[in-house]
Target: FAST kinase domains 1
Amino acid sequence: ISITGKQLKLLRKLDHYGHQRLQQSNNLDQLWEELKSLKADWFRESLVEETIAALQRLMDGINYINVAGIASFISRTNYLSTLLLDRIASVVIEQIEKIHPFSIFAVILPYSILNYDPPQRNEFFGTCMQCLHSHLGTLDPLMLVFLGFSLATLEYFPEDLLKTIFNIKFLARLDSQLEILPSSLRTRVQFRLMELNRAVCLECPELQIPWFHDRFCQQQYNKDIGSMNGAQLQISKMLAEVLGGINCVKTSLLSPYYHTIEFECILDKRKKPIPYGSHNITLGKLPGMYWESNIQIVGSSLPPGAERIAFEFLDSKAFCRNIPHIKGKSAMKKRHLEILGYRVIQIPHFEWNSMALSQKDARLDYLRERIFGIGKS
Model:
């Protein structure tokens, strides 16, 4: 959208008044009423830091009435304020009797998105689940799936919630609800259920909840794993150089539980790259093949002492907006790949695109260091 000079002037004025208003705010209820009524995303975007600063300054006013709304606001900002999240957790623990069960998902969401555990983590999540316990049978199935997934990103797996979700009657109810949803929301719910199913299988095998998303994943990933962006193409070429040839790097793979893996290589016990196609290497299965659901960890198909390495380029969406703190989904993916036997090397965009790595040689050294623990060849 092109903006005229007059419009730009007006936007700057609004921005200026917004900053002033936030700095002068001394009443959280009043401020919150104004924030709730803001519709324009650009306005919120330009004032995020100032808004968080104002909320932190007035956080003693957070209570059972506004806690869910403020938590939702934080989720949308992608801004990690540990002060605010710690305060929200305290309010929930102290005032849980007055908080409606329907608000619990909104309260938990920022912790999941921003990958943050408050100091009283177990008490906080336990209190939230206690509030929900007697309502599990009546709450909206969609909300329960989203809640289960959010808690899974935080490595919190309440058995009563999981047994409610992974139950034939519940899944039938969910299916009938999915039929009437718009396709984009339907797909989102299906993905969240799949990701929750995957997390439970990998992180809570003792619950013996079966993996039942093979067909769904095959349909999704048969379409396309996605194309590589510029940084990923650079990394791919440089990995081939560092590892000794393109036959030592695999690109665009899927894990046995359908995590997308941008690049993979295998090192033998002496830390030497093993070319794909050589003896004793089992390639990752391709999308579209039938996969057994009782998959052994990936490392089991390697020669003794060898390790499989997964690389992931992390763009700005993988981090909180204010600090280089990795968000929940990327943290969970790393955890899962490690359970599956991978060593995971995540390459943050701010390292790869930094001045220190502006030259090709520096980038090659960076990759060598990350893979082999050594610098120049």
Notes: Residues 281-300 have pLDDT under 50 and may be disordered. Residues 183-203 form the longest helix (21 residues). Strands lie at 250-254, 260-267, 307-314, 342-348. Residues 5-220 form one domain.
